């Protein structure tokens, strides 16, 4: 698809006036170019390989539109959001895009620009514990690349008024010392890596070091001390620390040949070769998983995250398996626990943390942050059960499914009789307006629920959300009602509404749900 877009871009006229005339005559081109710009920017942030020359050609087209002199045409094609994408592509290919940014975002506020970059990294750190570890690492790396791209476009004259150095130091410290702490690497991730350390994790640390250097380049010597202090705020003193593994951000930066030598003096000893080799591996294109196979799994188990499915299918045990065998493996073990090492107990990660084994010791700052993040995530999820909350179709569907499960779990059996039963037919009809819910999806949802450690809480929450149903004459009315709730079949009318203690359906427990 990208190559087809590349041909389209290269077919556009070279003269600025002719490019503008072509876009005026074919409005669909504007939409296609906007989508291409966004996709290319996303691939750069994910450190993916781009088709030869397409990004450079697209920037050239945008430059020709700017030269045409009609800013409304360029802003209609990309606008302020497109300015960020342009900055990313310019950073990746070392192209000066400042004039183009000013055309896309007239009277651009560089302080707001830097704030957007900071917010992207801060968000990836804040939500790290709410997603699977591999996805969290990917998001942090993506945000670090985006922030680098945005900071490099800020004019030197605007730096002193728009850069909050200590705030950047704080978020970099939390990312480097807290969420990417080596002790947080899941055992299965460490053991599946081609080197002693996961390559994507090392590459993310390298991106954060590059970003830290970028921040310090924009910090004067007089203002450097509070920034460096913030960068090391979360650092843990580790005797004989290994570079890129458990050393502090500032110490690692000294070993990475920094450019900001007016603030951080370079160390004569560079990074060990093994760490750099592992980081370089992560920059190479990842092994491709058959997209059709991933789509097949997601069609049956839509709650799983695509990156986690792709990573799982890339494991050796799935090579040579038939599609039927792969589907059976995912249905029997949706969370992929059998793919982990035999010595990995997912419920015992905290118990193996040395800090957690000292009962009388005070909570570490890392543990406090993790508890606060988990508590905030739970509060957010519980709000989705409020009667007045607007629900997505997926969330409404899960409530219907939970209520059907409470009424008669046998309706979810993977048998011919269950599929042809009146109850299954009624369930399919209740879900027909809420997405693609065929028999396979319904049965797959039930398998996942059975393995969900929060199953009991979810069912209790569903019972508490009893509400009058438009189909009050039927004992098995499962459809969503006017208040976005649903009636539990067989439950007394007028049941208590309100919050419970379980995770909201649609964002249920388990790795990769809701992402």
Question: Could you explain how this protein is built, in words?
Answer:
By secondary structure, the protein is mostly helical. The chain has 4 domains: 2-104, no CATH class; 110-283; 291-339, no CATH class; 384-515, no CATH class. It is built from 26 helices and no strands. It has helices spanning 2-11, 16-25, 27-45, 54-68, 71-77, 79-93, 98-104, 110-126, 133-151, 159-162, 165-179, 187-192, 199-217, 224-231, 249-254, 273-283, 291-300, 306-313, 323-332, 354-357, 365-383, 393-407, 416-420, 422-431, 439-450, 455-464. Residues 341-364, 366-385 and 466-515 have low confidence and may be disordered.
Quick recap of the structure?
With 515 residues, this protein is mostly helical.
């Amino acid at each position: 698809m990208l190559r087809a877009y590349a041909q389209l871009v290269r077919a556009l006229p070279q003269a600025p006036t002719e490019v503008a005339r072509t876009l005026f005559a074919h409005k669909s081109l504007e939409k296609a170019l906007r989508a291409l710009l966004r996709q290319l920017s996303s691939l750069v942030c994910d450190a993916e390989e781009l088709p030869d020359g397409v990004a450079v050609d697209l920037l050239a087209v945008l430059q020709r539109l700017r030269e045409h002199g009609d800013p409304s045409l360029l802003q209609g094609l990309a606008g302020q959001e497109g300015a960020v994408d342009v900055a990313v592509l310019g950073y990746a290919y070392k192209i000066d895009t400042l004039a183009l940014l000013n055309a896309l975002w007239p009277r651009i506020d560089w302080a707001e620009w830097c704030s957007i970059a900071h917010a992207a990294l801060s968000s990836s750190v804040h939500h790290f514990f709410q997603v699977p570890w591999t996805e969290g690492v990917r998001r942090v790396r993506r945000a670090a690349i985006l922030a680098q791209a945005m900071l490099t476009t800020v004019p030197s004259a605007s730096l002193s008024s728009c850069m909050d150095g200590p705030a950047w130091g704080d978020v970099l410290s939390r990312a480097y010392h807290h969420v990417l702490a080596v002790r947080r690497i899941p055992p299965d991730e460490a053991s599946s890596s081609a080197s002693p350390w996961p390559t994507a994790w090392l590459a993310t640390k390298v991106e954060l070091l590059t970003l830290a250097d970028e921040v310090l380049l924009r910090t004067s010597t007089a203002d450097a001390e509070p920034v460096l202090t913030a960068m090391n705020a979360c650092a843990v003193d580790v005797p004989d620390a290994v570079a890129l593994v458990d050393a502090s951000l500032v110490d690692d930066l000294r070993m990475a040949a920094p450019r900001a030598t007016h603030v951080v003096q370079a160390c004569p000893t560079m990074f060990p070769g093994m760490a750099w080799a592992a980081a370089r591996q992560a920059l190479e294109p990842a092994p491709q998983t058959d997209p059709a196979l991933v789509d097949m799994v997601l069609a049956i188990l839509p709650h799983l995250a695509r990156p986690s499915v792709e990573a799982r299918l890339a494991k050796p045990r799935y090579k040579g398996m038939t599609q039927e065998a792969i589907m059976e493996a995912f249905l029997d073990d949706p969370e992929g626990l059998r793919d982990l090492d035999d010595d990995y107990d997912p419920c015992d990660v905290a118990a193996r943390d040395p800090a957690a084994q000292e009962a009388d010791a005070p909570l570490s700052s890392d543990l406090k942050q993790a508890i606060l993040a988990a508590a905030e995530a739970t509060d957010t999820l519980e709000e989705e059960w409020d009667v007045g909350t607007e629900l997505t179709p997926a969330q409404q569907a899960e409530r219907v499914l939970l209520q059907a499960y409470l009424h008669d779990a046998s309706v979810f059996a993977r048998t011919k009789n269950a599929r042809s039963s009146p109850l299954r037919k009624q369930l399919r009809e209740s879900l027909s307006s809420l997405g693609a819910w065929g028999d396979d999806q319904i049965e797959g949802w039930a398998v996942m629920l059975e393995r969900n450690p929060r199953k009991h809480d979810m069912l209790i929450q569903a019972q508490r959300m009893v509400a009058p149903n438009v189909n009050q004459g039927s004992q098995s009315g499962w459809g969503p009602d006017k208040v976005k709730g649903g009636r539990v079949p067989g439950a007394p009318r007028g049941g208590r509404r309100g919050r419970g203690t379980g995770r909201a359906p649609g964002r249920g427990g388990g790795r990769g749900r809701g992402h």
